[in-house]
Amino acid sequence: MENFGYNKEEHQHQNNNSGNTYRSEKKIPAAILALIIPIGIHKLLLGYTNEGILQIVLTFVTCGLFGLVSYIEGILYLFKSDKEFDDTYVFNKKPWF
After folding, report:
1. Higher pLDDT, 85 or 18
2. Cα–Cα distance between 20 and 2 in angstroms, integer?
3. To the nearest whole percent, how much of the chain has pLDDT over 90?
4. Cys-Cys with 66: which of 7, 58, 77, 93 at CB 3.0–4.6 Å?
5. What pLDDT score does 77 carry?
6. How far apart are CA 57 and CA 63, in angstroms?
7. What is the spatial distance between Cα 20 and Cα 68, in angstroms, rounded to a whole number?
8. 53-67 pLDDT, tens per residue?
9. Overall pTM surpassing 0.90 (yes/no)
10. Which strand (E) or helix (H) includes residue 49?
11. Other CB atoms within 10 Å distance of the CB of residue 20
12. CB-based contacts of 24: which residues, under 8 Å, 6+ apart?
């Protein structure tokens, strides 16, 4: 699956040459979407199309109860470092938690 111009080698090269700390481009938007709109939209942002659609359907079928998974994931996203977030969810594609 494509990351739409966002690959690990280029991101590491940019951060190693700039001397700045590592910054994830998708961590904060994914966490905000998971906490504010807890139906699975954050999965779509991260490129997990099947998991995102499944979570949206399950959230509606369970009358919002499955939305708790989004809250948990949003909190986990915020507590991970930027590098750990990218390694886990962007590059290694871990779909749940």
Report:
1. 85
2. 26
3. 68
4. 58
5. 95
6. 10
7. 35
8. 999 999 999 999 999
9. no
10. helix 49-61
11. 9
12. 82, 83, 85, 86, 90
- Alpha helix segments (H runs only) across 1-97: 8-18, 27-36, 41-45, 49-61, 68-79, 82-85
Name the CA dihedral angle for 34, 45, 65, 71, rounded to a multiple of 10 degrees.
-20
The residue to which tokens 């991970």 are assigned: 80
- Written as six digits, the tokens of 17 are 């040459």
> What CA–CA distance (Å, rounded) separates 18 from 69?
36
Reported as a single tens digit per residue, the pLDDT across 19-46 is 578 889 999 999 999 999 999 999 999 9
In contact, 82 and 24? CB cutoff 8 Å: yes
Tell me which residue of 45, 30, 37, 34 sits closest to 85, measured CA to CA. Answer: 30
H/E stretch holding 72: helix 68-79
Max intra-chain CA distance, the chain: 49
